[in-house]
Amino acid sequence: MAIINENYLKLKAGYLFPEISKRVKKYSEENPSKKIIRLGIGDVTLPLPSSIVKALKDASDEMSSSGGFKGYGPEQGYSFLLEAILENDFKARNVNFSTDEIFVSDGSKCDTGNIQEIFSLDSKIAVTDPVYPVYVDTNVMAGRTGNSGIDGRYENLIYLPCSKENGFEPDLPQERVDLIYLCYPNNPTGTTITKEKLKVWIDYAHKNKSIILYDAAYEAFIQDKNLPHSIFEVDGAKEVAMEFRSFSKTAGFTGTRCAFVVIPKELMGYTGTGEKISINQLWSRRHTTKFNGVSYPIQKAAAACYSIEGKKEVAANIEYYMSNASKIKTSLESFGYEVFGGENAPYIWLKTPKNLSSWEFFDKLLSEVQVVGTPGSGFGPSGEGYFRLSAFGSKENVIEAIEKIKNLKL
Ligand SMILES: *Cc1c(COP(=O)(O)O)cnc(C)c1O
User: Which domain CATH number covers 159?
Assistant: First the structure.
């Protein structure tokens, strides 16, 4: 008899996006003449920059010659990409790493989901609430949690609430935790963290021998020069943190797939008897065993993001999205909404008016002005009463959506 991993049965059904689709479908079937504008998506929409596509094509052509053909590549990534990452993402910010501290992968979703494998099942895990669901669900699958309660929280998982009351800055956990997932700029709230606040987490991690799993998927959207793009810009981080980066949102690679994780050699975990073990070595063993590397043409395309032309094109796309974000934010504020994020991230997080629940506001927005967003409660219990709008749409749609929201009767 094939007994399954019953932890999977603890997972709440993938409820959020299917439920949104269901409600939108029902509405459009009942109102076929109404145009619906979607500001709910967490996916980029602009095409890949042309210099990046050229690199992708050139590398594919190379594969057709006997001299340029590549078979299995190094699992950690080709050195041309590792060097470009070190130089542009880190050295340029006075952070130094060697190439064997970077692991190229096919996504931060996979990396943030897989990383838990190298830690004990007894590890105490802390997540912010609201949260990117991957961090939670992968720990549920592994068996680090109990069941989910009626409040939507899993037993044995430490939730760190983020709301307007604490300025979306989570308090340190009351109890000792081993692993802490932090994501800044944040999805879904669009809020950020300062170097000083990160230092508080780094000090906590030093004191408790914890590890911070830092997701910086949206660092390229930071506009404020004082905000850190990397946790490693803060002193003491190398001993207690690893960082996830992705080309997905930065350069429009959501369908192209390339990301990386930075694991400093200083970062240590412990055996049950207290012996120090290099996390870099453990992850290297895991990565080279279970992953075959990102394809050569895709790594060439990723490296092209760091060329002079590539940087220009990538920056132009980000500027486009951030101009959408700014329009949404300032317009909603002028209509009287309480709005967060949107300044250093492509997400706008708004407080629902009149204390409507997240889903009540979703229905109102859909039925009265045909704009689709994402209910905050879908990202965790503390997201209740909030709503996410994404800046990843076309400028025309954003302008039209704003005009419509203006007419929404509250
Ligand atoms: C989009 C996103 C990522 C990137 O995931 P990929 O697998 O690299 O596409 C990582 N973290 C968060 C919070 C995200 O929203």
Answer: 3.40.640.10
For the CA of 111, the nearest atom of ligand 1: 7
What does the pLDDT average to over 98-104?
98
Of 194, 213, 219, 215, give the one whose Cα is nearest residue 267. 213
For 345-398, the pLDDT digits (tens) are 999 999 999 999 999 999 999 999 999 999 999 999 999 999 999 999 999 999
Residue 213 beta carbon below 6 angstroms from any ligand 1 atom? no
Write the pLDDT tens digit of every residue in 145-172: 999 988 889 999 999 999 999 999 999 9
> What is the rounded end-to-end Cα distance, in angstroms, of the chain?
57
Same domain? For 340 and 271 the reply is no
- Going from the Cα of 379 to the center of ligand 1, the distance in angstroms, rounded, reads 14
102 and 58 in a common domain: yes
CB-based contact 385:351 (threshold 8 Å):
yes
User: How far, in Å, CA of 254 to CA of 246, rounded?
Assistant: 9
Concatenated DSSP letters for 22-38?
HHHHHHHHH-TTPPPEE
pLDDT (tens digit per residue) in 280-308: 999 999 999 999 999 999 999 999 999 99
Same domain? For 116 and 32 the reply is no
The confidence score (pLDDT) of residue 155 equals 96
Same domain, yes or no, for 117 and 29?
no
Residue 390 in contact with residue 374, Cβ under 8 Å?
Answer: yes
Nearest to 257, CA basis, from 303, 292, 294, 307: 294
| Residue 326 CB–ligand 1 contact under 6 Å | no
Give residue 109 CA to ligand 1 midpoint distance, Å.
5
How many structural domains are present in the chain? 2
Q: Is the pLDDT confidence value at 41 over 90?
A: no
